[in-house]
Amino acid sequence: MSSTAITPSVVDPAILLPALRDALVKLDPRQLVRNPVIFVTEVVALLVTVLWAQELLTGIGAPAFSGQIAAWLWFTVVFANFAEAVAEGRGKAQAESLKRGKADLFAKRLLHPNDEADTASEVIPAISLKVGDIVLVEAGDIIPGDGDVIAGVASVNESAVTGESAPVIRESGGDRSAVTGGTQIISDWLRIRITTRPGESFVDRMIGLIEGAKRQKTPNEIALSILLSGLTLVFLIAVVTLYGLALYSGTDLSVAVLAALLVTLIPTTIGGLLSAIGIAGMDRLVRFNVVATSGRAVEAAGDVDTLLLDKTGTITFGNRMASEFMAVEGVGETELARAVLLASLADETAEGRSIVALAKSDYGLTEPPAGEGRPIAFSAQTRISGIDIDGRPVRKGAVDAVLRFVGLDKSQAPAGFNAAVDAVARTGGTPLAVAEGTRLLGVIHLKDVVKPGIKERFAALRAMGIRTVMVTGDNPVTAAAIASEAGVDDFLAEATPEQKLDYIRREQQGGRLIAMCGDGTNDAPALAQADVGVAMQSGTQAAREAGNMVDLDSSPTKLIEIVEIGKQILMTRGSLTTFSIANDVAKYFAIIPALFVATYPELGALNVMGLASPQSAILSAVIFNALIIVVLIPLALRGVAYRPVGAAALLRRNLLVYGLGGLVAPFLGIKLIDLAVSALNLI
Amino acid sequence: MTWQGWLQIGLVLALVASAIKPLGLYMAHVFEGERTFLSPVLQPVERGFYRLAGLDSRAEQTWLGYAMGVLLFSFLGVLLLYAILRLQGFLPFNPQGFEAVAPDLAFNTAVSFVTNTNWQSYGGETTMSHMSQMLGLTVQNFVSAASGIAIAVAVSRAFARSGVDRIGNFWIDLTRATLYVLMPMAIVVALVFAALGLPQTLEGSVTAMTLEGVSQTIAMGPMASQEAIKQLGTNGGGFMNVNASHPFENPNAFSNYLAIFSMLSISSALVYAFGQIVGSRRQAWALLAAMAILLVAGIGAIYWAETAGNPIHLAAGVDASLGNMEGKEIRFGQAMTALYAAATTGLSNGGVNAMHSSLTPLGGLVPLFFIQLGEVLPGGVGSGLYGMVVFAILTVFVAGLMVGRTPEFLGKKIEAREMKLAMLAILILPLAILGFSAVAAVIPVGLAGPANAGPHGLTEILYAYSSAAGNNGSAFAGLSANSPWYNTTLALAMLAGRFAYIVPVLAIAGSLAKKTRVPASSGTFPTDGVLFVGLLIGIILILGGLQFFPALALGPILEHVLMLAGQTF
């Protein structure tokens, strides 16, 4: 279950067969009433079925016709249910495996939790744990519930949740103290304070989410349902009153044809696919290894105006790396590089390794054989590393430390040296000094390296109308340099948690929606305040509780994908709504002439599709209306393609495809079905 | 169709277009409480009114307070007008000595004028005393128009504001609309009308001896002043039974130009004022463009259908050169009749300069369809604008989702509450129009109304309820509507069309005013471009018109295909 997981095919029989069964179960009107459009369809289908039975028994009317209408009305309802069931089915397998992992868990609850040496415990079922209980887990145990590590260090296999099999370290204090119920401890032991009630844990939430059991309509879904219900009412009025108007015109319309007209006019296409779109969207998110606590948050993601991104790990690689060596006057490039290489051999930090790598790659140097000279290892106290070779000390390190080492004051250093140091600092980099003996050789430029491709992503976000704001603890000079290199719109330098929170509040007061990600406990207030707060799975329990999404891969750039998925859900809804409404034009042209051509043959002029007979026209419209739901299920599950090209271009494209397509497609579809209906002699 | 005809149409529309900006800016200033060139004269009067009413000119109302103000004022207006009509026999300025108006007709008329519908189940010159015309009907011509403007202004403010629950003060907006906008314009227009030959007198009628030697009673009255506010306030209730086709109400081409200009100018300019108040003039032009495109398409359709004429007439040997001239005035011709018919129904004016019943089936379909679209092209004073705002909200909701954001219009998020209210408003027209029509088309008291059999009769019924529910007031003619059934149901349709629409609209305004305005970005659905204009037109046609297609198919469309087949009833 990594982000590259293959999306199950829509025609996977393992999903389709159970979905077909579920589609029938969902016919229960108590369930269906949540979806007004399909509920109305079901009521109408029931009515036509009863009338068909009556026609069969009495022999009055055209039972063959009304029977077929009834059947296709039922198909319409079943297809709509089927769409929802398929969407749910795709998450079910995943939920099953999570549930299995959860079953029959036991916990070792400590009897004397206050005594750190006492490991006496009782074994109780995990479901009877309470918040605040202290449990002990040892190598091989499954962690019984979500909690905070209060003592111990252990490696934990979290693959049951994240799908990532490499174990992670969990320890007390700091940002790695959160553990998730259902994950397995591989080595050592942990004391854990349980922080969630059984049934409300992370895995439970995940199961609920994937299964769609606790799915609640999102605000936009509610608003859209209101529009669809309103349209249903409007067309109900139009169809019911048509009976009276037709009577005036000398036509006594049968219930079956009025029912056919009603069901084809009300927005059954979007009504039937609406919940599938939402479920599939959440499912896509889960496939991206992101778990949202609510659909509301996913929808908000589509609306986000500002992304607050941590510099380290998101925009830059997180480690400063050597980018160039700057020699002072009188020192050769190679000489400097050789000194740098020698001085950095004993520096095991990431920065030290990057210096060695640069010396090798850009200057073609090779490491001298081991054992030559006496290495001086880097330490945080001296902030210097180096080597004593042939009695000469070669050193590199923080500028002030090296100056102290060579016994010079900054004012006494060569002008070229000071200029290089300032130049590096101005661009936001970190200068390191290099000396041999008492001679200053030059400066190493350490720089926060911006991830490749990130600038293009930000440009894409800008095209979508989303501002990116970089948050960093760096000073403003460094921050500005990286901000301009990465192409973010704004930055927040020397940021404290309070400043972050203030920034979010300020933006929100201006009506903007903010998304951010974070992992530390001090991120929690900002995560809670943000409209979309993505907590890292590797983060603390506090952060995970505060956010409304958890990224199982703990990858901060995921925020961008989350926004795209949010937008995709809304776009799919809008496109299918437009399609559904645009369909009505063709259906009118199919059904209206069919209703009245018997009384007024002149109205046959409206039969622009040249449909075979009034009955086949009506039946074809109803069949088209039912089949289009099935045809569009893959699109509803996959979502309308999203491209970061700006609102106007997106709208133009979707309008062309789904608006114009919605106008034209049913003309073709109904005509083709009519040809088939007449060829098969269904009427 | 001739180029001269189109030139005339273009000329009148160009005149209207040139008035949009100055008049719109003026109204925006008036309703923002800023000084205008009329302030030195009118401000003392305005203040005097507030002092008399004990009104604090800074006190504002919530949407509910505002709506209650509208409802209370309208209710009292109905009561007062009903009383005047019932008591006109005892009141002065009744030179012809008309008796009291019958109860159902008085109720229908009171409702009709208070709702800015001006449906007339009566012949003005044979029913109403001058007192009733001036103190009763004309007063409502002013204040019902002013109420509409006030509501539109409140809706505009809701978009401009952020995080407040107040949308203005109905009594102040009402006063300003009457005092600063309608009164000055009405005075000027009335004087010009009088100069163009409309009678303006308190005389009752004159009796003349005709050439054939019989005596004829020629009705007279204060027509120029009536006509001015009838057009400016998109009221449409004529002094005469035949409305603006009568040579006294509309004597010549110039009075016809002025009439069309007057009815279109305030509604169009209000859209500009909306743009000014919400801070986006481009938005105003976008809305106006959508209105203009549909209006011109309608004018063209009527013009084409009428000049194409009626094949049955042609077969009978009628001169084909002018097209279908039945029910039209030769002094206006086809072009100006088409423009008048489209404008009066694109607006909620309802005055006519030709008999719509005599238009060809397709020519008659356009005015009927325009009313059913909700009269937003550009619609009645105020009501057109807020109707258009509801359509714009629906448009951004359906289309806005397609750009991947929850929909917003002018920076305001459109959510469940707004959708609920907008759908409530949208439901009113089909419910009132199709509901009443379907009943009237099958029950004997309803079937007694239409003068014609067949689809034309159905169109007459449909048109009457469309006109009432849409607060248009124009009559298709041919329907004998002065019966208890029609008077009552039409009055109910008028009430529903006006107030069941206004209350949700004001609730939307209240809800929007509370929301924070979201700044636009390149991810926002742009609502001031060509694409939006096209979409808006699509939504107006599909959501506003599609539900009427079956009814129209049985009315004008059926009549058209039967006409082509040569069938008559």
UniProtKB/TrEMBL annotation, chain A:
Q: Which residues are listed as membrane-spanning?
A: 36-54, 60-82, 222-247, 253-279, 617-637, 657-680
**Family of this protein:** Belongs to the cation transport ATPase (P-type) (TC 3.A.3) family. Type IA subfamily.
Q: Which residues bind Mg(2+) per the record?
A: D519, D523
The record's active-site residues are D310
Catalysed reactions, as listed in the record: K(+)(out) + ATP + H2O = K(+)(in) + ADP + phosphate + H(+)
Protein's recorded name: Potassium-transporting ATPase ATP-binding subunit
| Quaternary structure, from the entry | The system is composed of three essential subunits: KdpA, KdpB and KdpC.
Example GO molecular function: ATP binding
> What taxonomic classification does the UniProt entry list for its organism?
Bacteria, Pseudomonadati, Pseudomonadota, Alphaproteobacteria, Hyphomicrobiales
Alphabetized CDD domains for the sequence: P-type_ATPase_K (cd02078)
Quote the EC number: 7.2.2.6
Q: Which InterPro entries match?
A: ATPase_P-typ_cyto_dom_N, ATPase_P-typ_P_site, ATPase_P-typ_TM_dom_sf, ATPase_P-typ_transduc_dom_A_sf, ATPase_P-type_domA, HAD-like_sf, HAD_sf, P-type_ATPase_bsu_IA
Membrane-protein topology = Multi-pass membrane protein
Judging by the UniProt lineage, the source's domain of life is Bacteria
Identify the keywords attached in UniProt to this record, alphabetized: ATP-binding, Cell membrane, Ion transport, Magnesium, Membrane, Metal-binding, Nucleotide-binding, Phosphoprotein, Potassium, Potassium transport, Translocase, Transmembrane, Transmembrane helix, Transport
The P-type ATPase A domain extends over: 118-211
What function does the entry list?
Part of the high-affinity ATP-driven potassium transport (or Kdp) system, which catalyzes the hydrolysis of ATP coupled with the electrogenic transport of potassium into the cytoplasm. This subunit is responsible for energy coupling to the transport system and for the release of the potassium ions to the cytoplasm.
The residues that the entry says bind ATP are: D347, E351, F378, S379, A380, Q381, T382, R383, I384, S385, K396
One of its Pfam families is E1-E2_ATPase
User: Where does this polypeptide localize?
Assistant: Cell membrane; Membrane
- Species per Swiss-Prot/TrEMBL record: Devosia nitrariae
UniProtKB/TrEMBL annotation, chain B:
Q: Which domain of life is it from?
A: Bacteria
- In which broad location class does this protein mainly occur, judging by the first location in its UniProt entry? membrane
Annotated membrane topology is:
Multi-pass membrane protein
For the keyword Membrane, the answer is yes
Q: Where is the chain membrane-spanning?
A: 6-28, 63-85, 134-156, 177-198, 254-273, 285-305, 385-403, 424-447, 490-509, 530-554
What is the residue range of the signal peptide feature? none
Q: Where in the cell is it found?
A: Cell membrane
Which keywords accompany this UniProt record? Cell membrane, Ion transport, Membrane, Potassium, Potassium transport, Transmembrane, Transmembrane helix, Transport
Q: Which Pfam families match?
A: KdpA (PF03814)
Summarizing the function annotation, the protein's role is: Part of the high-affinity ATP-driven potassium transport (or Kdp) system, which catalyzes the hydrolysis of ATP coupled with the electrogenic transport of potassium into the cytoplasm. This subunit binds the extracellular potassium ions and delivers the ions to the membrane domain of KdpB through an intramembrane tunnel.
**Family from the record:** Belongs to the KdpA family.
- Tell me the HAMAP family matching this sequence: KdpA
Q: Which NCBIfam families match?
A: kdpA
Q: How does it assemble?
A: The system is composed of three essential subunits: KdpA, KdpB and KdpC.
Q: What is this protein called?
A: Potassium-transporting ATPase potassium-binding subunit
Q: Which gene encodes it?
A: kdpA
